[in-house]
Amino acid sequence: MNDLCWNKEFAMVQVDNDEELLQELIMIFKDSSASDMAILVQAIEKEDTAEGRGASHSIKGAAASLGLEAIRDVAMAIEKDCREGSLVVAREKMPQLQRLLVQMREL
Predict the structure, then answer these.
(1) Rg of the chain, C-alpha, whole Å
(2) pTM of the predicted model as reported, rounded to 2 decimal places
(3) What pLDDT is recorded for position 1?
């Protein structure tokens, strides 16, 4: 779980120290990130950088709000590359992002 670099203190501040709310938001993120990952996989298959940018942006923003720093950083790198019209980073970082999302499911 250490790979996640989860800043739980930051996340708790975001939810005004409401542990129940944080757990609810984590559950929502688990669902939304699975959907966004499916979109990202399709984007890579279709060579669609706009779709890849949108999916990685969504993952990045949600991860950032929950203090999931490693997921945020990987998604940000993918988004930046897609914005520049490339899917090279997405292809390279996809296994890492998938592994981090699996780890996040254990929260």
Answers:
(1) 14
(2) 0.93
(3) 45
> What is the distance between the alpha carbons of residues 27 and 29, in angstroms, rounded to a whole number?
5
**Distance between CA 7 and CA 3 in Å, rounded?**
12
What is the percent of the chain where pLDDT is above 90? 93
Please report the domains of the chain, with CATH numbers, ordered by start residue. Answer: 18-104 (1.20.120.160)
Distance CA 10, CA 13 (A): 5
Average pLDDT over residues 34-54: 97
User: What number is the average pLDDT over the span 10-21?
Assistant: 96
